[in-house]
Amino acid sequence: MHLSWRPVALAALVVAAGLAAGCGSVDRGEPVPRGRAGTPLACAGLASAVPAGTRLTLSESVPAGEIQLTGVQPGAPGSKAPVPAHCHVQGKIDERTGIDGKPYAIGFDLRMPTAWNGRFFFQGGGGTDGTLRDAVGQLTGGGNTGNALLQGYAVVFTDTGHLDEPGADGPYRFGLDPQARLDNGYNSMAQTGRVAKALIAAHYAKAPERSYFVGCSNGGRQAMMMAQRYPDMFDGVIASAPAYRVPLASVQAVYDTQLYAKAAAENAPLVGGRPVLSAAFSPADMKLLTTEVLNQCDALDGLKDGIVDNWPACRFRPEALRCTGAKTAKTAKTAKMAQTAQTAKTAQCLTGTQVDALAKSFAGPKDANGRAIYSDWPFDAGLHSAEWTRWKFGDAPGAAPNARNITLMTGALAMVFSTPPTVTADFYGHALGYDVARDSAKVSAVDAAFPQSAMQWEVPDSPDVDAFARHGGKMLFFHGVSDPVFSVKDTVRYLGLLRERYGERTDAVARLFTVPNMAHCSGGPATDQYDGLSALVNWVEKGQPPERIVARARPENRDVTTPGRTRPLCAWPKQPRYKGSGSIDDAASFGCN
User: Fold this and answer.
1) What is the pTM of this model?
2) In angstroms, rounded to a whole number, what is the distance separating the alpha carbons of residues 3 and 404?
3) What is the pLDDT of residues 91-105, one digit of tens each?
4) CA dist 10 to 13, 30, 118, Å?
5) Rounded to whole angstroms, how far apart are CA atoms 551 and 586?
6) How far apart are CA 380 and CA 410, in angstroms?
């Protein structure tokens, strides 16, 4: 059944409310009462304008220049951000004591530039959050210079209601408090948005004219959550590599660990009775894999160029790499290597266990009834990059893996997404002992202490965006085809649900752009630098729906072999196609067909 939406006056829209304990009404940013009507409040005076239940902990004027970013090692690439002169405030919302006896609050960082463009930008988070980062307005696309704050946006960020604790399990201990789970899932974004708009209106004596939510990974999930639960708060959202079914993707991560641990056990001696996970596949093995992906699928788009643009048509057969005898490696020696007495090994084939692990992982796990738990995955040409392998098996030489599937995904699955939670700091042991078919049901379970399951408070998978669409809301999705964390096919699945509901009218509210070879949010041998924010703003404010967005291969990206190459990203399901003339490294030589 195709449903329609009708444009209505913004003032007539009903705002979602009462979705969580302590969750107040949400508005689109109308000014709140303050000293004198129409009089802007200086940065130092904003404490008088905070809504009930909110306390400012910092208020300062910051001059134009650079700031050291919170949580980033000083001196590391990207450790500083350029900023304009702005008012910087931090605060806490709904301070309380959890059932675990620990203090909780929804922390926020808000920055309001002196030269304001009249827009509001909510900067999405990542992982399970728990760190109050600087609200500079990180842009989508790898390696983009500048930020939304520098462009004149008022920007806010939230820690989602908890702060990380020390220890391996510290980032996930908030999962033992039911309200902290709900705050992390959706309530903190709504409350932060409400307070931020009130402070913006007080500071400028004017509400934001337009509001945008931009995020990748968990930030992409948050963007989808706002469009569905709080449809009137934002005019447009960007959901890049959205973690919108992260409880199920976390089950997939554990499943992958079990498969790759079996391969690792054959390739290296056990340490402490456990496989060394990083031994599952060598760099040479992974390069062999992506070389074969290109052999089988690169030409499907009509051009052999190291990019599988027609990835939906790729029916890759890992069986072609199975060793027929003992696994061997050929030693290659280049002139440079000869000078330094170094050699490099080129894999010739993969073991049966490696091939089986790939086939099962990319098909996805099944539950006790044989139904798919999460999603299947495409084989792509970016799987050999460090941005892919660091998630799946990492590079730690010992028995304690540093793969993010262990340190992040398994920790969150055990302590945040499962009911009841499993308290553990041994995430590798938890993954190896997890019964995928049986234990995956815990992400949908409830009990007296946790009356909402992770699939209820964490997962914005509803195709009902009627209210968001009625006021002209727009959604842009970006997703790398070589994403190791969340399958691009799962995002395609959500677009399919929208199309089932709205038919051709889907294109008026949501568009997806897939990025071949790109890993999670950025990275990989891809053209991963693009301007999603301008595309969204032009769509919302000028009525210009994006058909193609030019992306660039960053020279500083170590995985890129064609630095400076540009390619169009095409609105799904269209794909880039070479026009037959012109440089294959120039986006102008390609159309979207």
Assistant:
1) 0.92
2) 41
3) 999 999 999 999 999
4) 5, 12, 18
5) 10
6) 25
